[in-house]
Amino acid sequence: MGINILGMGSYVPEQVLTNDDFTKFVETNDEWIRTRTGIVSRHMAGWEPAWYMGREAARRAIEKAGINPAEIGVVIACTLTNDFLTPSMACIIQNEIGAVNAAAFDLNAACSGFVYGVDTARRFLDTDSSMKYALVITSEALSRFMDFEDRGTCILFGDGATAAVIERSDKLYSSYLGSDGSGAQYLYARSLRVAPEIAVEKEFDDGFEVKDNMHRLIQDGKAVYKFAVNALPSAFEGAAEKAGITKDDIDYFVPHQANVRIIETAAKKLGVSMDKFIVTLDHYGNTSSSSIPLALNEAIDKGIIKRGMKIALIGFGAGLTYGGIVMEY
Asked: 0.85 cut: is pTM over it?
């Protein structure tokens, strides 16, 4: 069983930070950032909570799809930056959009989130014949977790949200998901520690660095790069092999928007021209789970990706996770 993306929507924060703005926080400049990453500007949440951004994207997707939100059977919110430990962002948005008959839960596969979310939605639709639509939302407020004294990470990320209304169809569809937990220490942000009121905190070396600002994002850029340039081709090849197609059958690749050098290297490994890759990181930066769908939605709105085209969604992220989907749009 395949899927049809009936409608997509997106939302990005009002606040935009250019590369020049980062000179206020760290020693850097526009040329240094642009040449190493391909990023020129990014949206960063000011007053907007992650759930609000996700709600706005969901409302736009539902409007484009022309459906009644009461007919949505499941709401899957992909995020690593929920505003709350509980409740889930999905439950908040489910109420806000009137999806009164939907189950709702959050999914955290970091930057692979949209690929994981879409594939999870497809499996719900495949196994529950009574379910008419699934709603996959991504929303990230990564700026809340940035260390603005670390020029190697704070320049890379942006905030934003997307949503996709999905229904079952007989279109081409294949997926390939994977993970490598041995690389968990390459990209992480801590949350809770032992409460001193009820337990004595002892030294415990789990291999993850502990800083005073422990909730800030910590990244080993070289290790992530090494993983990413192999993960993107592997994600596509795994999905394509299942579908019995090759790179030549794909009209457009929509990769995770982390760094233009990663995308260029992955394209070279696949033997595919960069002309077939959708790249939007210059004005969004790395928006984690929102990066693939922001690029996809923009390409659809601009008429670049059209109905009937075969596309490949390929991502990687913290965890480490990776995944690919080949499908007919």
From this structure: yes
